[in-house]
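A note on notation is needed here, since sequence and fold are reported together in a single record. The reader may check this reading against the record printed directly beneath this paragraph.
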Amino acid sequence: MKVFFRRIHLYLAFAAGLVIMTTCFTGAVLVFEEELQHSLHKERYFVSATNTAQPIESLLASVREKVPEASISGIKIYADSTRSAEITFSIKRAGEGKNEMGTAANKTAGKSKPVPKEGGSLVAFVNPYTTEVIELYNHQNSFFYSMMSLHRWLLSGRTGKLVVGVCTLAFLFIIITGIVLWWPKTKNILQQRLKIRWQGGWKRLNHDLHIVLGFYSALFLFVFAFTGLAWSFQWFHKGIYKVTGSSMEQKKPPVSSTKGNVDSLSLNNFFSFIKTQVKEVRYYNIDIPKDSIAPFSVIVLPNSAPHESAIDIYFIDRNKTLLIGIQKFSDRNLGQKVRSTFRPIHVASIFGVGSKIIGFIVCICGVFFPATGYIMWWLRTRKRLAKQATQ
């Protein structure tokens, strides 16, 4: 039976090994994306909280001054007084916007930052105390976006997404068959397979690195791969709701009482209002609706949230400054709650820095497992061929 599992393990590793190495490497890079961004570009994310925060309309005016064609869709304000405000926008007229955006970015950041692809958006980082536009940032042009694109679809769209999904499925079977092959028959063998023998020569070391580290990281790699399938296959995404007996449909947001236009001053009033309604949160993310009867929606992440996807949404009537609806994370159905955990689990942020460290180490191990496995196969093959030659 183990011969069968060994062949499945080997053949799948040969077929999917290179993709597995790529996704594990890029996954390791992406684990600490937020921390690296904050460290490498501290001036973008952090400011000195020396004055009283300016009204939101003043922040928006600064962005519009830099980019007159900006169509602002959202504002993110952090509870941390040292964080910059993040204003999300797109370019109204693509033809004129490209030249204007390039000019604005050059003035602001000192270097060219092309506009996003069609349908994409940019983020203006603004000092909430001075209204200075710190930087106009296009995530699609960043190193981490390239890593994410390589991780999810191998830089090649739908085809790459399918390849990654199939190889991820193969990886699950590789992990399962690996555990079957690792499983010891005796207690003595068990003790041997739980520790690395550093003094046994490079061949023994290569074997132990594959076998021992493979066992310790198997569960984590399986969970990371399993959760990753939700982004590769729609059937897997729907299956989460099917298994939990839950509906995929989200609750429809309420509508404002009457039609009407909202000026910029009203937006600041809404923000002041929501701060009186919701406290003890990490941030307020205000979504500006395009529909004239749609309410303002404010996404908040409570300090008590179990993970980064456990958000609450508050809806405010745009004409009466009245709270007209709340969608709490705690009120979601089982399927929605389970699905919301997939991202924090997949990116290893579910338990903060501790789980990120584990995720980083496990992903680095995942990069080397195909290589150590190939070496083991090559050594066995060479030994078998040499034996056949002497017969």
